[in-house]
């Protein structure tokens, strides 16, 4: 009977591939902490997994009241966001989560944006909100949600929220990152510093310099 022979180099390659496959899930969100907590020292420079730990902590480091409202929605989009992330609540440092309070005036829009470092889950607290996200093959998944209903947006995908009711609306959202980041498409494209060359934008949007300059004027910092 023939005997299957496996070389040591083949075994090494198999072991290395298996190790890589097991390691991939650990990259799906912030790294796991190695101690009970690490309240961030915001005066120090952040590292790859957050800020250095404060040398002395107190009970107040683990509680946060900044998600309350009402928020001021008197702006062009009719929306305001109160974040609870590592920059506003250092107790979240290295814990891999954060939250937002999002409030909308009637008709207010949280414009298309993405969170490059996190999946987002949210619940409607009051009002009626049209929530949608787009996949990488340009499919739109959307639904009007009412108080008590929940949504999820996969990491990095473009999404938006729109208050379709006649009264104010409010969401509470959560993220599997202490600092999920936000790339707001209109501001990113037309309000960058330095600005994206008009030639790129006119070609991309199949328009002209007049239109591009008008849009840039609305988002100039």
Question: Can you give a write-up of this model?
Answer:
The chain has 221 residues and is an alpha+beta fold. Helix content is 19%, strand content 26%. It contains four helices and ten strands; from the N terminus they run αββββββββββααα. The strands form two sheets. The chain has a five-stranded antiparallel β-sheet with strand order 1-2-9-4-7, with no helix packed on it. A five-stranded antiparallel β-sheet has the order 6-5-8-3-10. A hairpin with a 5-residue loop joins strand 5 (128-134) and strand 6. The longest helix is centred in the first third of the chain and has 16 residues, at 8-23. The protein is globular and about 55 Å long. The termini are far apart. Keywords: Apoplast, Disulfide bond, Glycoprotein, Manganese, Metal-binding, Secreted, Signal. Residues 65-213 form the Cupin type-1 domain.
Summed up:
This protein is 19% helix and 26% strand. The protein has helices at residues 8-23, 185-190, 198-205, 209-219; strands at 79-84, 98-104, 109-114, 120-126, 128-134, 140-146, 150-153, 159-163, 169-175, 183-184. The strands form 2 sheets. The protein has a 5-stranded antiparallel sheet, with no helix packed on it.
- Roughly what is the average pLDDT, rounded to an integer? 90
Total number of beta strands: 10
Q: Helix/strand/pairing class, anyone?
A: alpha+beta
Q: Strand order, main sheet: write it out.
A: 1-2-9-4-7
Number of helices: 4
Q: Between the first and last Cα atoms, what is the distance in angstroms?
A: 77 Å
Order of helices and strands: HEEEEEEEEEEHHH
What would you report as the Rg, rounded to the nearest angstrom?
22 Å
The proportion of residues forming helix, as a percent range, comes to 10-25%
Low-confidence stretches are 21-27
Percent strand: 25-35%
What does the main sheet amount to?
5 strands, antiparallel
Any idea what the shape is?
globular
Pfam family, one: Cupin_1
Subcellular location: Secreted, Extracellular space, Apoplast
Family: Belongs to the germin family.
GO molecular function: manganese ion binding
């Amino acid at each position: 009977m023939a005997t299957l022979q496996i070389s040591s180099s083949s075994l090494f390659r198999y072991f290395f591939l298996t190790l890589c496959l097991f390691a991939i899930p650990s990259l799906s969100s912030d790294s796991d902490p190695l101690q009970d907590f690490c309240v961030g020292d915001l005066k120090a420079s952040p590292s790859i997994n957050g800020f250095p730990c404060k040398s002395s902590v107190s009970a107040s480091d683990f509680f946060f009241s900044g998600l309350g409202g009402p928020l001021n929605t008197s702006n062009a989009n009719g929306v305001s966001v109160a974040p609870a992330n590592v920059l506003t609540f250092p107790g979240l440092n290295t814990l891999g989560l954060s939250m937002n309070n999002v409030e909308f005036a009637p008709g207010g829009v949280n414009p298309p944006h993405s969170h490059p470092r996190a999946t987002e889950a949210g619940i409607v607290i009051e009002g009626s909100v049209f929530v949608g996200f787009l996949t990488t093959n340009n499919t739109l998944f959307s639904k009007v949600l009412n108080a008590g209903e929940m949504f999820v947006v996969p990491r990095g995908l473009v999404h938006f929220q729109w208050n379709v009711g006649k009264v104010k609306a409010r969401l509470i959202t959560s993220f599997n990152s202490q600092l999920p980041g936000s790339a707001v498409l209109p501001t990113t494209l037309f309000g960058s510093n330095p600005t994206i060359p008009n030639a790129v934008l006119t070609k991309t949007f199949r328009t002209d310099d007049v239109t591009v300059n008008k849009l840039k004027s609305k988002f100039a910092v």
